[in-house]
Design goal:
The complex is a heterotrimer.
Chain A lengths: L4 E5 L2 E5 L5 H7 L23 E4 L6 E2 L10 E3 L3 H17 L14 H9 L16 E2 L4 E3 L9 H9 L5 E4 L6 E4 L12 H5 L5 E3 L12 E6 L8 E7 L2 E6 L13 H5 L14 E4 L2 E4 L2 H17 L4 E4 L6 H14 L5 E2 L6 H8 L9 H6 L2 E5 L3 H4 L1 H14 L2 E6 L11 E4 L5 H7 L1 H4 L5 E5 L6 H12 L4 E5 L6 H6 L20 H6 L5 E5 L15 E6 L4 H5 L2 E4 L8 E4 L4 E5 L11 H11 L9 H11 L7 H5 L4 E2 L27 H4 L3 H5 L5 H4 L2
Parallel strand pairs in A: 1-5, 16-17, 16-23, 18-19, 18-21, 19-20, 21-22, 23-24, 24-25
Antiparallel strand pairs in A: 1-2, 3-4, 3-5, 6-7, 7-10, 8-9, 11-12, 12-13, 14-15, 14-25, 26-27, 27-28
Helix pairs in contact in A: 2-3, 7-19, 8-19, 8-20, 9-15
Chain B lengths: L1 H26 L22 E3 L14 H5 L5 E7 L11 E9 L8 H5 L5 E3 L14 E2 L1 H4 L15 H10 L1
Antiparallel strand pairs in B: 1-4, 2-3, 3-5
Chain C lengths: L25 H6 L4 H7 L3 H10 L12 H6 L10 E6 L8 H8 L1 H15 L3 E6 L4 H16 L4 E4 L4 E9 L9 H8 L23 E5 H13 L1 H7 L7 E8 L5 E6 L2 E2 H8 L9 E5 L8 E2 H4 L3 E2 L1 H6 L8 E6 L4 H15 L5 H18 L5 H14 L6 H16 L1 H10 L2 E2 L9 E2 L2
Parallel strand pairs in C: 1-2, 1-5, 2-4, 6-12
Antiparallel strand pairs in C: 3-4, 6-7, 8-11, 9-10, 9-12, 13-14
Helix pairs in contact in C: 2-6, 2-9, 3-6, 5-6, 6-9, 9-10, 14-15, 14-17, 15-16, 15-17, 16-17
The chains are: A alpha/beta, B alpha+beta, C alpha/beta.
Chain lengths: ~700, ~170, ~450
């Protein structure tokens, strides 16, 4: 950093690395230069002319968004010509911009409003007729109001550069220019809504939030998206206990402002009409609404009875409930009910990876590594579909750092657009493909390996051995499906491993074994839907289900306890890269209870002593008892991601690769929960055939 | 003695003077109001109970922009917005207030809402008899505040014929 | 085909083969000294060619007047990337029609110029980007290119010297903006014709981000003569800082409109009265635009004493531009002229940057109203102010091109605007849809 360039901005001496743009240098020095089209991280436009500044020895005003700093440069950002230029640019912008701020969704958080308020002229000199175009709907989610558009091209850039989709372009010329979908009148894209969020004005509006409320009327709650395992932070806008929008405009969290359709729009399961709001109990063969007290009493009684006669429990945990709930569930099972028959839907072979790495915790990558590492190898996964944040980070890495990406997949994937090498293989033969890349991979200075669920068991060990033989630093991400799939493993929702991968003495039944056991007395399902894939062999089993909806499993239940969704509870979840983040309750649904509370009340009803069951105390137990989870509290408390390093030794258990099966969700599906989001099910299924393996 | 006479005369003069004002006022127009026996008379700009105005087509002027609620210092205005459709047009703008409540147990009649309104939808009327023994009746709904339509008049809305036909198909 | 009689006052260097029977054919070209300069270049080094062009004081004929030799010398010849030659034949400047005549009458001159440029920078591929409206010129150019291939002046092994050069034509789609060099390159690459951020300039990162020589047709056409007669001799044809001849298009209210090849520094008076045969109907000249509608307008009185060269025009506050001289006589309605010019730029504004996109539209609306006499003197000020707000703030020169003539017309012919307004009495704005109500 020795060779910094020194320049003067508004009389203030500023130092910046060579190549820095004046607008950035000014920002770092605390001087605001307004701009619409300039957006950090995307290509330069210089189209809005708001960022014009005066530079000494230059005849004209210069666009500071394309002007690199130079030694001895003298910049003025508030001189008379600059102020006049800004005012005139805003005046020009407002000539065709409708002044319908009262009905515009962006009103109150509109960059144009702010700029006119701050830099614009109070008086309007425009008395001609404005150019009007009718509003268009491009998809169930995206609406476009052309007159409001200021043509800053942000949407086009975020779509093509950020998302790698390129669904938007521009049509017509001059003042008649409009943003238009590449498919004419409709969008065929990820429906991620990034274009809506990045729009500085109200030209692009979302189907979920449109005309619902105004920005200042909402409570904004930052929490973690409950769908895939990437763990994006989403800021939910809540009004009257109803979630009306999701975004992450403050760019906090590991995802920056990135969100896919799930994080941004699929929160609508929360007030789905089929949401369960009262406990149900099977009375006379039919599920009927009962009080919480009655339902809990019945479950506790049955549990106590089966426990007393040493009956067979089967417990299925969730990949979407919090770490606290998962920890408490396994504690309930092992200490309270005395059984190891506990399992969950396994979607990636984390256990074998941990074992193969044997203590090399620094070989576990973070989401940030996807953006920073110089080379990446994607094995057996369609990242853009299943792990959109990781895909976004890799894409940004390529765009900004020219990262070299290799793919070994069954079919075409979006990473092919920029990957240096693409290998197509049959599932199960991925390692041959990886081997064929050896000459290229061994030239890389470092490597990030992301592998999907088709690499499991011995294949994971072989992959690690292969990477070791390259003699370069390698980091790994074992891809799993859901928001807390990783946490479920870490918390020991496994018949043979307790929390922190500690082997247990008497391994219990696995999920298929439970379902096949004809003598199962109790099946307790917390936030999962095993009957969607398996059938229950024990006809007389007493089935207790904690669920949000009447899923296949809940329909078979004897008692259904309505659970709160992830957006309605506090706790922590661990994402695919082992980063632990905090959930914050955003809304409430009358009649439901968080799973932790349900389990706690059950324990109380059964008079079991499982400790205090508040989120804080259970999290404290996790921090002290689960290996690798001794994470700094302030990091979690302030909504940051804390990296867990779960293991530093071997895991002496026999891996069961046969039980590992990813649900291969697309951008528009997410297990049982995805079915209950109207937005998720309303959009055109795309990228459809193009990117599906 | 003289002082006595003077006193009597003085008193008589004072009474006469006072009575002259009384008699003069008797001939002036009455300024005392008869309320509640007669109607209450207001200054034109009296800030009474709110009235939600309609435009020249009979549509509601309110577009549910929430600016009144934002301006309200006691937060007594509650709005829920909804989008106008081709079949059902309530207001002149893209959206309308599906719910518009003012809590008169909190309203201080400051007039900020009227000042904030960009469409001149909310105004102060002259209604002031709002007292109630039950505070729950003090929450006034949109329907109670809306300016009445002229008798026999319906909001004149230009409907898209295609959309109307489509709506008819759906019903 | 020639559109006008040549004038004896012309200095016919580029146009010397015009009027010969079958002048576009390669045989005619070869018979009259064609491709001789190229062959001469084969014996020269790259530096020698560029030095020769530098010595000629040749300045770009597209309008900006950037020294051509200097431009060529910016091309990094050591760069491993392929280098390209691109001919800007997107001649769309109102009042300009010189490239069309050159390509129509002497296409091989252009090809030879391109070949020499290719030699100078080591390019192996060239494109001629022809304006969409010049559809028929593509056939002429294609035929000429075919002839050049058949005579081995183009191809993989030119004249058996192991030199490789391929030349292609490419048609625009009718956007004025694509005459701007970076927008032309975008269009040539198959993208939307919008200008690029510069730097980097095309000489360093042009077509497909490779070093590119991009010049006007006339510039390339001048190159063979420079090589033939030597840079110095060519320079002496013109004035000290700008060498050679310039094809000047006389348009407007003049008796003999047409394209004339005149030495740089030719007096305006002589040009109009002797070459052009005087103002139509013996009227007075009210306004004079020296180089296409993008240049500030001069009044007749201002224009008469000038000479046609870069410095003289710059001193008078305008530009030589592309050499498209527009002459307006005393009957011209200058408000209408301003409106017509603005209409063109409003229609051609690409929409990329705000001041140009919105400014031209607003100005057009405003001028339309003023033309109808509906306005106040405040509106006249507003026209000037808006044009001033566009000037120098836009992304590419199109905004300046729209602003400059407007500013000068409002400044110099303000009385005409006022006269129009005075004819119609107006009331102040009644409603947004009808900003002004005519009283009488």
């Amino acid at each position: 950093m020795a060779d910094l360039v020194t320049l003067t901005i508004n009389g203030k001496t500023v130092q910046a690395p060579p190549g820095t743009l004046v607008i950035d240098a000014a920002k770092r020095a605390g001087i605001e230069i307004p701009a619409f089209c300039y957006y950090e991280g995307f290509s330069l436009q210089a189209a809005c002319r708001m960022c014009l500044v005066e530079v000494e020895k230059m005849p004209k005003l210069q666009a500071s968004c394309t002007l690199p700093v130079a030694e001895g440069m003298v910049v003025k950002t508030e001189s008379d010509p600059v102020v006049k230029a800004r005012k005139s640019t805003l005046e020009f912008l407002l000539t065709n911009h409708p002044l319908d701020c009262p009905v515009c969704d962006k009103g109150g958080e509109c960059e144009l409003q702010d700029m006119v308020f701050r830099y614009g002229a109070a008086e309007s000199r425009f008395t001609e007729i404005k150019h009007h175009v009718d509003e268009k709907q491009w998809s169930p989610i995206v609406f476009y109001d052309a007159p409001r558009c200021i043509l800053c091209y942000r949407c086009i850039r975020v779509c093509s550069e950020g998302m790698g989709v390129g669904a938007l372009g521009i049509v017509n010329r001059g003042v008649y220019s409009e943003i238009a979908p590449s498919h004419g009148d409709h969008l065929e894209c990820d429906e991620c809504g990034a274009c809506i969020d990045i729009c500085p004005v109200g030209a692009l509006t979302s189907g979920t939030y449109r005309y619902q409320t105004r920005p200042w009327e909402m409570k904004h709650v930052g929490t973690i998206c409950t769908f895939c395992s990437n763990g994006c932070k989403t800021t939910l806008g809540v009004r009257n206990e109803k979630i009306v929008r999701g975004n992450n405009r403050d760019k906090s969290g590991i995802n920056g402002e990135f969100l896919c359709i799930k994080g941004r729009f699929a929160f609508d399961f929360q007030d789905h009409p089929e949401r369960l709001t009262s406990p149900l109990m099977r009375i006379d063969g039919k599920l009927q609404e009962v009080s919480w007290a009655k339902a809990l009493e019945a479950v506790a009684k049955k549990f106590a009875e089966v426990k007393a006669r040493n009956g067979k429990f089967g417990i299925v945990g969730s990949t979407k409930t919090t770490n606290e709930e998962n920890f408490f569930l396994q504690k309930f099972a092992r200490q309270g009910l005395g059984t190891n028959n506990i399992d969950h839907h396994r979607s990636g072979d984390v256990v074998t990876l941990m074992d193969a790495l044997a203590g090399r915790t620094n070989a576990l990558a973070t989401v940030e590594d996807c953006y920073q590492m110089k080379a990446a190898l994607v094995v057996g996964a369609d990242l853009a579909q299943e792990h959109p944040l990781l895909a976004y980070q890799l894409r940004a890495n390529f765009r900004h750092h020219n990262a070299r990406v290799y793919t070994v997949t069954r079919g075409p994937v979006r990473e092919d657009q920029y990957s240096v090498s693409r290998v197509r293989t049959e599932p199960g033969k991925e390692l041959e493909g990886v081997e064929s890349l050896r000459p290229m991979l061994s030239q890389e200075p470092e490597l990030l390996i992301l592998f999907g669920s088709s690499i499991k068991g011995e294949d994971v060990r072989r992959l690690v051995a292969f990477a070791d033989s390259l003699n370069i630093p390698v980091k790994y991400i074992c891809l799993v499906d859901y928001s807390n799939s990783r946490g479920a493993v870490d918390m020991g929702l496994l018949p043979d491993l307790g929390p922190g991968y500690q082997p247990v003495d008497n391994p219990g039944l696995t999920l298929p074994e439970m379902m096949a056991a004809t003598d199962l007395d109790v099946l307790w399902v917390v936030g999962a839907n095993p009957l969607a894939r398996y059938s229950l062999a024990a006809a007389n089993a007493f089935v207790v289900v904690q669920e949000m909806f009447l899923t296949e499993t809940a329909q078979r239940a004897d008692v259904v306890l309505p659970a709160a969704s992830a957006y309605e509870k506090n706790g922590t979840v661990t994402n695919v890269t082992g980063q632990c983040q905090k959930l914050t309750a955003a809304a409430k649904t009358m009649g439901t209870k968080p799973d932790l509370e349900i389990m706690g009340l059950l324990a109380k009803e059964m008079k079991l002593n499982l400790g205090i069951w508040t989120v804080q105390s259970v999290f404290e137990q996790i921090r002290t008892q689960v290996r690798g989870y001794n994470i700094p509290l302030p990091v979690v408390a302030t909504g940051q991601a804390a990296q867990t390093s779960p293991l530093n030794g071997r895991i002496p258990v026999i891996s069961r690769p046969d039980l590992i099966q990813s649900a291969s969700n697309t951008l528009f599906t997410s297990g049982s929960l995805g079915r209950y989001s109207k937005k998720l099910t309303s959009v055109l299924e795309y990228p459809g055939e193009l990117y599906r393996p | 003695m003289a002082s006595k006479i003077q006193e009597i005369l003085g008193s008589a003069a004072a009474i006469a003077k006072g009575m002259s004002i009384t008699f003069k006022e008797m001939l002036q127009p009455t300024i005392t109001e008869d309320y509640p026996d007669g109607p209450a008379i207001f200054q034109e700009r009296f800030r009474g109970a709110h009235v939600l105005q309609r435009d020249e087509n009979g549509l509601e002027k309110c577009v549910a922009c929430f600016l009144c609620a934002a301006a309200c210092p006691v937060e007594c205005i509650y709005i829920e917005a909804k989008e106008n459709t081709e079949q059902q047009r309530i207001s002149g703008g893209e959206r309308y207030a599906e719910v518009y409540n003012i809590d008169y147990s909190r309203c201080i009649f400051c007039g900020y809402c009227v000042e904030a309104c960009p469409t001149d939808a909310i105004t102060h009327g002259h209604g002031f008899e709002l007292a109630s023994y039950n505070t729950s009746t003090l929450i006034i709904r949109k329907e109670q505040m809306l300016a009445p339509l002229e008798p026999g008049k319906k909001p004149s809305v230009v409907l898209d014929p295609a959309a109307t036909a489509l709506a008819a198909d759906h019903h | 085909m020639l559109y006008n009689e040549p004038s004896p006052l012309e200095t016919r260097v580029l146009t010397r083969r015009f009027g010969l029977p079958n002048s576009a054919h390669i045989d005619t070209y070869l018979a009259h000294g064609g491709y001789r300069s190229f062959e001469k270049c084969l014996e020269m080094t790259q530096e020698q060619i560029i030095e020769e062009v530098k010595a000629s004081n040749l300045r770009g004929r597209g309008g900006a007047g950037f020294p051509t030799g200097l431009k060529w010398s910016f091309v990094p010849r050591q760069s491993p990337k392929p280098k390209y030659i691109v001919v800007n034949a997107d001649e769309s400047e109102p009042g300009t029609c010189k490239d069309r005549v050159l390509m129509e009458n002497d296409p091989h001159l252009l090809i030879e110029g391109v070949l020499i440029a290719a030699q100078a920078v080591g390019a192996k591929r060239g494109y001629i980007y022809i304006r969409g409206e010049y559809r028929y010129l593509i056939d002429i150019m294609d035929r000429a290119i075919e002839e050049a291939y058949s005579r081995n002046y183009l191809g993989k092994n030119i004249l058996g010297r192991g030199i490789e050069f391929d030349l292609y034509t490419h048609t625009g789609a009718g956007a004025y903006e694509c005459g701007e060099e970076s927008a032309l390159l975008e269009s040539l690459e198959g993208k939307r014709g919008q200008p690029r951020i510069r730097p980097p300039f095309p000489a360093v990162a042009g077509l497909y981000q490779c070093p590119t020589v991009l010049n006007n047709v006339e510039t390339f056409c001048a190159v063979p003569s420079i090589i033939e007669m030597g840079g110095k001799a060519w320079a002496e044809l013109g004035v000290p800082k700008a060498g050679g001849t310039k094809l000047t298009c006389l348009t407007g209210h003049i008796n003999k409109p047409g394209v004339y090849e005149l030495r740089l520094g030719f007096p305006v008076e002589k040009m109009i009265n002797e070459v052009g045969g005087g103002i139509r109907g013996g009227k007075k000249m009210k306004a004079f635009i020296p180089g296409g509608s993008s240049c500030p307008v001069l009044t007749g009185e201002e224009a008469w004493p000038l000479t046609m060269d870069y410095d003289s025009m710059a001193k008078a506050g305008t530009m030589l531009g592309s050499g498209g001289v527009i002459i307006m006589d005393e009957d011209t309605d200058m408000v209408k002229a301003a409106l017509r010019i603005m209409h063109f730029y409003q229609h051609e504004s690409c929409g990329w940057c705000i001041p140009c996109r919105e400014g031209t539209t607003w100005l057009k609306k405003l001028l339309t109203r003023l033309d109808q006499g509906l306005g106040t003197s405040r509106d006249i000020d507003l026209v000037g102010d808006l044009a001033q707000n566009m000037l120098g703030r836009t992304f590419c020169p199109l905004g300046d091109a729209a602003a400059l003539p407007t500013i000068s017309i409002v400044q110099k012919f303000r009385h005409e605007f006022e006269a129009k307004i005075a004819k119609v009495q107006v009331a102040m704005p009644a409603s947004a849809n009808h900003p002004f109500v005519v009283v009488q």
